[in-house]
Design goal:
The longest helix is centred in the C-terminal third of the chain and has 19 residues, at 120-138. Strand 2 and strand 3 form a beta hairpin. By secondary structure, the protein is an alpha+beta fold. The N and C termini lie far apart (30 Å). The protein has helices at 2-18, 66-79, 84-100, 120-138; strands at residues 31-37, 42-51, 54-63, 144-145. The chain is globular. 44% of the residues lie in helices and 19% in strands. The protein has one domain: Alpha-Beta Complex (Sufe protein. Chain: A), CATH 3.90.1010. It has a four-stranded mixed beta sheet with strand order 3-2-1-4, covered by helices on one side. It contains four helices and four strands, in the order αβββαααβ.
Length: 151
């Protein structure tokens, strides 16, 4: 059974890597953040359109490994319609899950990243887009780097 679950998770990650959702620039974005993972070479720009406290739309562009692209793709699907507070809560859940393997709360499809903690070199790949999300929500101008993070 575990192998079936593992295979399913790998299929979801590969699908989002090969056909990333919301992969385009958003010229009318109200927030934007850049992220860089020098260890793996992942680079991305995350775009958000906020309506007050609600994330109305999200997209990204960039290049990187499969885990990084899949994470950004699933992130953009996940945060649409959430408030900033809900997105911040999801960030905390995802960060905990990626670093420990423990799923806390309902994270939906994001649970595919629960096994990443077993591969320390990939943790920063999976969390990069989430740190970019936090930078965008805070309106930070400086690019986000995984080298400044304690994950």
């Amino acid at each position: 059974m575990f192998d079936d679950v593992n295979d399913l998770y790998q299929q979801v990650i590969l699908d989002h890597c090969k056909q990333p959702r919301n992969f385009h620039e958003m010229p009318d974005a109200t927030r934007m953040a850049q992220g860089h993972n020098p260890l793996c070479g992942d680079n991305l720009k995350l775009f958000l359109t906020l309506d007050g406290e609600v994330i109305k739309d999200a997209s990204f562009v960039g290049s990187g490994c499969c885990i990084s692209k899949a994470s950004a793709s699933l992130l953009t699907d996940n945060v649409k319609g959430k408030t900033k507070a809900e997105a911040e809560k999801t960030f905390e859940q995802v960060r905990g899950m990626i670093t420990t393997g423990k799923v806390n709360g309902d994270v939906g499809k994001l649970a595919v990243f629960a096994g990443v903690y077993k591969y320390p070199a990939r943790v920063k790949c999976a969390i990069l887009s989430w740190h970019a999300l936090m930078g965008a929500l805070r309106g930070e101008a400086a690019p986000v780097s995984t080298e400044n993070d304690q994950t």
